[in-house]
Amino acid sequence: MASSFSVEEFIGNGILKELLPKLMEEGWDDVPTLKVMNSEDMDSLHMTVRQKDALGIRSYLHDRGLMQYADKLEDCGKSLPQLFTLSTLDLASQFDMKRGHIARFTNRTRCDDSFKIQTITARNRANTMHRDDSIPKSTSTLGSTSSNSNIMIRSRSHLRSNAASDTIEQSMIDMKIKDGYTFKGIVACEPAEPRACGCVKPPLVSDQVAPYSAIENISVQKLTPEYKIGMEPLVKTKAPPLKASELWRDKPAVILCLRRPGCIMCRAEAHQLFSRKPIFDALGVQLFAVLHEHIESEVRDFWPRYWGGVVLLDTGRDFYKALGGGKLPKEKFLSGFLLNPRAISNYKRAKCIGIGQSFKGEGEIKGGLFIVGSRKTGIAYQFIERNFGDWAPLAEVIEICTQMQQVTDVYLMLFTVSISWLLQY
């Protein structure tokens, strides 16, 4: 029922607007993540009672596709429980709420969790996501063996919910018991919007997962190591090229492909992703950032201030071609940014964080993100930057990685049991 909203649209022009810079700074930078904020998170931001009430109202309305009433309901000064006590006549007269919308508002039995990976369901309805629904139900049950890990992730990230597993279960992985398991993957991208009153058509994106063969033999070069004190001199050391498959030989990897390290939107995306590194460490997932050109001053400004992990150079731009379905995804600045309201909104979102920027280098090649399983298990997820500055939602990325860990734990458990059984006989 919920539609795709930017954080700015979700917050509106009311009492929450003054919190926007702080929310962005603390990583509450997409709607699904914002909606899982608990009382402890709210207190850490020093939110007032009215601000907490406003967030509760907007989350409830967003779940039910009733955001057109958010400003009026927030302005009345009532909390969500108080609004539930109003009669049908009051809702219609005070807030101009239509009868069908009143029924939806008062039907609390349809109680969506604040977080159900709304972006996945919204994109599916818009036909912008390709997914496979054939994951066996038994896998979800077996995956509960890693509950200790899940408890740790819930306590650190606040991004888990009971409903999230069911949503991912339908959009994740067709498994084949052969050399482990094989990911078939899902593709995600933000919706396309009309540009210049419909005169400019948004670019088409591939809805097919890139074949594993398209990325496993890519030649990359490490430009930086993972940051630790005293590692700066190693940035000047030229590392030999290596095959991309070496990166995820032992552990799954998140591969963030950036348009330009000096771009304010790319820096903001990299910063908000790397700030969750403890979560990915707990899941056993590595983080890599990929550039398609090497400008030493830009790398120096980017690492480690905005990204403290390994930075890779893809001179052949093959990761980017894989995202584009075999073609380099490019768009001109005029049509892709100046005439694109969504890209401008992405720019404003990044600017709110207070990040600096530069304008060196090629900025028209679009990027995205891959989640790749260990060894040759394949691509579990890829996000395509349709509009300049689109970010892969952190909630989705963490959910996919969590599911990968569960599947891995299941196979390790089965392998251990099988070995023990064989040794007994």
UniProtKB/TrEMBL annotation:
<dbReference type="InterPro" id="IPR036249">
    <property type="entry name" value="Thioredoxin-like_sf"/>
</dbReference>
<dbReference type="Pfam" id="PF13911">
    <property type="entry name" value="AhpC-TSA_2"/>
</dbReference>
<dbReference type="GO" id="GO:0005737">
    <property type="term" value="C:cytoplasm"/>
</dbReference>
<keyword id="KW-0676">Redox-active center</keyword>
<comment type="similarity">
    <text>Belongs to the peroxiredoxin-like PRXL2 family. PRXL2A subfamily.</text>
</comment>
<feature type="region of interest" description="Disordered">
    <location>
        <begin position="129"/>
        <end position="156"/>
    </location>
</feature>
<protein>
    <recommendedName>
        <fullName>Peroxiredoxin-like 2A</fullName>
    </recommendedName>
</protein>
<dbReference type="InterPro" id="IPR032801">
    <property type="entry name" value="PXL2A/B/C"/>
</dbReference>
<keyword id="KW-0963">Cytoplasm</keyword>
<feature type="compositionally biased region" description="Low complexity">
    <location>
        <begin position="138"/>
        <end position="154"/>
    </location>
</feature>
